[in-house]
Design a protein that fits this description.
By secondary structure, the protein is α/β, with parallel strands linked by helices. It is 40% helix and 15% strand. It has helices at residues 2-10, 13-17, 19-25, 27-30, 56-64, 81-99, 110-121, 144-158, 173-182, 227-242; strands at residues 41-45, 68-71, 103-108, 126-132, 190-195, 212-216, 245-248, 261-263. It has a six-stranded parallel β-sheet with strand order 2-1-3-4-5-6, sandwiched between helices. The protein has a two-stranded antiparallel sheet with strand order 7-8. The longest helix is centred in the middle third of the chain and has 19 residues, at 81-99. The relative contact order is 0.15.
């Protein structure tokens, strides 16, 4: 019980917002090269129940460096997986058309899982993939409190309330199809950022064998406000923007910290 209370305290939104001043004072935020992004599009996919506002700092950081961030159109990411994926693919296609080339998908938590599904299904639209605290190895492996909310939403959906997570997304053919798709090899460079201090998603579930898995020491809700996350993303996104990282392996990495992308 006490472990659960400690996790809940660590993962409060109010506590995450305390990290904002630290991020704004950090050199990774203050030193910006406006030409770094080279106009590369980035679609931002929020986590379960978080909404677009949760990735506002990421959008501001990207825009200041010459990237072109855009909304994914998935709202609070609480709906049916198939419907959310359809919306994300539509937004990704539109942003790729708007920027004139494939885009980066940057998703947090469930949003990262949706981004991975989109990248596996339409690699022609995706230049690179960033997942923040995303349980891609088991989308139902999150904290029990999160699962209770998800099941409550599914009950509301079965009672006729539209736009919510469907029970089929947690069991049955729809769930099995998406779990299978989450295990598909990636054909784009990818990074999965995880934290052992994550009180929502067990860090082991973020160990995507087809991504570069990198550890930070953030909470789950605070990951988008952690300077270390931006320190990690800075050189990787810059390499994607300039085309210096193009090659990738089609087989899983041998360890959780081994990158699958190589310079070439």
């Amino acid at each position: 019980m006490f472990d659960g209370l400690r996790s809940a305290a660590r993962e409060s939104v109010v506590r995450a917002l305390w990290d904002v001043p630290r991020l704004l004072r950090h050199p990774v935020w203050r030193s910006a090269d406006p030409g770094q992004g080279n106009g590369l599009g980035v679609v931002l996919v929020p986590g379960f129940g978080a909404g677009e506002a949760s990735l506002v700092p990421a959008g501001s950081w990207l825009r200041a460096r010459g990237y072109r961030p855009a909304s994914s159109g998935v709202g609070f990411t609480v709906g049916c997986t198939a419907e959310l994926l359809k919306r994300l693919l539509h937004s990704t296609e539109k942003h790729a058309e708007h920027t004139g080339r494939p885009v980066v998908l940057l998703g947090q938590s469930r949003g990262g899982g949706l981004a991975r599904l989109a990248a596996a299904r339409r690699p022609d639209l995706v230049h690179g993939l960033v997942m923040l605290g995303s349980p891609v190895l088991d989308p139902l492996g999150a904290h029990p409190n999160v699962l209770r909310i998800a099941r409550f939403l599914a009950r509301l959906a079965s009672a006729g309330i539209p736009g919510l997570l469907d029970d089929d997304c947690m069991r049955g053919p729809c769930f099995e199809e998406h779990v299978k798709d989450l295990a598909e090899p990636l054909r784009v460079p990818a990074i999965s950022i995880f934290s052992r201090s994550d009180g929502i998603v067990p860090w082991q579930l973020c160990q995507d064998p087809y991504a570069e898995c990198v550890e930070v020491h953030s909470t789950h809700t605070g990951m988008g406000f952690d300077p270390k996350v931006y320190e990690l993303l800075g050189p990787r996104l810059a390499a994607w923007a300039t085309g210096t990282i193009r090659a990738f392996r089609s087989s899983p990495s041998t360890t959780s910290s081994s990158p699958i992308v190589q310079c070439g």
